[in-house]
Amino acid sequence: MGRAVRTEAWRVEMAGKQDAPTAVVVVDPDGMVSGWSEGGRLLLGWTAEDTVGRPVTDLLVDPPPPGFPEGYGTGPDPMGFIPLRHRDGSTVDAVVTAHPLFGPDARVLGHAVTVQRWGRRPVIADRAFEQSPFALGVYDPELRFLWINASSGRVIAHSEEQVLGKKYREVLPEYDRELFPERDDKPYTDKVAEVARTGEPARLITVFRPLGSNYANAWATSIWPVRDAEGRVRAVANWGFDMSAEYWARQRLLLLNEATRGIGRTLDVIGTAQELARTPVPGFVDLVTVDLFDEVLHGEEPPSASAFTPGETIALSRAAQHSAREDSDRAGGPAIPVSHAPGSVAVRCMATGRSTVELAAEPGQGGEWAFGPGLAADPAHWPPGNPLIDGTIAAEGLTGRITVPLRARGTLLGVVAFSRRDRPEAFTADDLILAEELTAKAAVAIDNARRYSRERTTALTLQRSLLPQGMPKQEAVDVASRYLPGGTGAEVGGDWFDVIPLSGARVALVVGDIVGHGLHASAGMGRLRTAVRTLADVDLPPDELLTHLDDLVLHLASDLQSAGHFQPTGESGATCLYTVYDPVSRRFTLASAGHPLPLIISPDGTRTPVPAQPGPPLGIGGLPFEATELELPEGSLLALYTDGVVQSRERDVDEGIAELRRVLNHSATSLEALCDTVMDAMLPERRTDDAALLLARTHALDPHHVADWDVEPDPAQVPRARKFAVDQVDAWGLAEASFVTELVVSELVTNAIRYGEPPIRLRLIRDTSLICEVSDASNTAPHLRRARAFDEGGRGLLLVAQLTQGWGTRHTTNGKTIWCAQTLS
Fold first, then answer.
1. Which element (helix H / strand E) includes 161?
2. Phi and psi for 814 in degrees, rounded to 5?
3. Residue 595 has what pLDDT?
4. How open is the CA angle 273-274-278, to the nearest 5 degrees?
5. Spatial distance between the Cα atoms of 465 and 460, rounded to a whole number of angstroms
6. If you write DSSP's letter for every residue of 117-139 in order, what string do you get?
7. Is residue 112 over pLDDT 70?
8. Burial of residue 354, with CB atoms counted within 10 A of its CB: 0-12 exposed, 13-18 middle, 19 or more buried
9. From CA 588, how far away is CA 611, in angstroms rounded?
10. Are 171 and 145 contacting, i.e. CB atoms less than 8 angstroms apart?
């Protein structure tokens, strides 16, 4: 063979060695092998002595393709997937590429053929996959093992040699069952088979307990099909990592979230204790008992924790007990007296105020503790003295018990015990935190129930006295409202609403909610309602008003910190929706501080979407509020409400809002009757929260009742402005108001020209009153002052204040507006 042929063969072979193993075969025009590389031996097991001089077709598993070897082609493009015969009899899936070899006279001397393993990658890439900390595996469509890396081998406790060629279900039968069948998840092997069958990738979290392990693993896994050049699924691959710590931490958060919704739904001591007992069974523990002082059951103050010592017997009442075994449940009825002996764990916990964990035996080796290994398994994170290895609880059939004192607002109410008896897992430090969080949530609810009967009457009286006793006179909207306190089993809340007339014939519709119940919520509601009215008088935009209200709540909370045995009364968790409707422009502006957005029904019955997102609740601080503006058709129906209207035990907020939208009848002639209809349809008989509803139907001011005029910044324009105003008032048939109107227009326009900045605009509005507005681009606000006897000025605003029934300043994004209003007889 010529030098050119040898050179080309060497070049191809050297290129192949970069991604070894790659075979380089030289085939003469007769289809005989005339050259064989070291890569060929590494890839197929054949040596040069075995192959040189033999037909190249001897290397093929299947019959050669038509024209073989001429069918190689004339370029470096691969011929495609071709199965080749390994010396040991196995098949090597390969991709073949032909390179024609030319002599000096351009005659084809043969072909240099590169043979690359299908899925060829550099050796370093093989090592990267092999050494990956993630579990990697490849299986054929029948779920037989084709390859696994070292991490996967450690997970399944089998080497690659032990599993190759075996079916997944044979090696790992535990993957054919789910640890939590109530979740209706498919077994992992079924999911892998589904990917092989459909060719669609999948991602899932698999929870299972491996054979020989006493705790559950959670694995995040991705599964995808592996296809050949023709698109056929030839294998299934997966990768996964152990996310047990994160998974069980999330389960704890879900349990806490469930507890938030499920504990404290009624202000009943025994009912709340039963809610606490039911929530963590069976996901967290197998048995929960809740023991309370008799005084707590009767709504009285319990004895002080300092009144007893660990060396005395403490008499309590078992208010609730719930078990995974139905035969030991207590579904209700009166509390049962129980006594805790001197020196017992329960007595020590109540005396010291510290929780205790008891384990029947030492936990497993290697940190394999259930319900979340990781931080939970590190003894360094346990509080001093925990956990206790107590063999006595084993005699009770328990593997572990957490005892937590039930405390709320510094008051000891009783003790709660969380026990495991039907599972091998030992409690962890994270489990202790979860038990304390559950107990803390329930303690507040139980203490609220204890205080309920004493505070309800006072709170309800205060609540009703602080709500509007009648709607103010205004023409922008027709309004109707309802407020209903919680049922007899719930405390009075902090829901409130208001209707505030504003300058320029506008009106503010407000609704809010103080999170919580009782006297503090009612007092907080009164403070917020007063603050909103004060800020509304300044005519702030909705977003700015909520910003100031947020600052006020923060200041109140800091000023009213708990001192001694008094409880804090800050409006933590308050929400508010502030809206402004302008009948002149029919513009509706709103901003929300964590409150549900209003429902808007157009006159034709269609729902008007509100493109806004509620901002953070009041009292968070540092976060912005955003205002949204809409233009509404005349006769639109607005519904402002608190969560007590739409949320209940039977439905969530989204379902409640959908039901409220269905109940609202835009064509109802009487808003009062519509309010009754809504409240009857939305509120259950045994409601647990107060509810406020404010309905409004918008009006549009007749364009003929609004007149405006641009004023040049020249004192000579003042007489023209007076004439414009007098002529307009006379045209409206209000001649009796001409004199006062002429004077106030003269004063306000003069001040705008003298002290303001252009552009200057005069506007007259005829509503229930005659409103005069003068706007300019200056942000400087005027103020009343007492002029001395010989002063030549300083009496203008005083004159305006004396002649009209109200005046003020409204700041805008482009300056300010000075307004005054005259009452029309």
1. helix 160-163
2. -110, 10
3. 92
4. 120
5. 9
6. ETT---HHHHHHHHT-SSEEEEE
7. yes
8. middle
9. 12
10. yes
Whole-angstrom distance, CA of residue 558 vs CA of residue 574? 15
Contact of 214 with 425, CB cutoff 8 Å:
yes
Give the least confident one: 364-378, 418-432, 775-789.
364-378
Structural element, H or E, at residue 750: helix 738-755
Is 513:619 a contact under the CB 8 Å cutoff? Answer: no
Token couple for 49:
């002595």
Strand ranges (DSSP E) for 652-741? 691-698, 706-711
205, 247 in Cβ contact below 8 A?
yes
pLDDT at 397: 81
749 touches 774 (CB < 8 A): yes
Q: What's the mean pLDDT when you consider all of the chain? A: 80
Tokens of 595: 């409150």
pLDDT reported for residue 404: 94
Give one word for 635, left, alpha or beta, with left for phi > 0 and alpha for psi -120 to 50. left
Distance CA 338, CA 446 (A): 19
Q: What does the alpha-carbon distance between residue 576 and residue 362 come to, in Å, rounded to a whole number? A: 53
Whether the per-residue pLDDT at 132 is higher than 90: the answer is no
- State the pLDDT confidence band at 360, using cuts at 50, 70 and 90: confident
Residue-wise pLDDT for 415-470, tens only, equals 999 998 877 677 878 888 889 999 999 999 999 888 775 665 555 556 555 566 66
3-state SS assignment for residue 681: helix
Which is nearest to 221 in space by CA: 176, 189, 248, 174? 189
Per DSSP, 649 falls in state S
Looking only at the bridges linking them, the beta strands covering 599-601 and 769-776 are unpaired
pLDDT of residue 19: 44
> Which helix (H) or strand (E) is 460 found in, with range?
helix 429-466
356-359/388-389 β-pairing: parallel
| Band (3; pLDDT cuts 50, 70, 90) | very low
SS3 of residue 102 by DSSP: strand
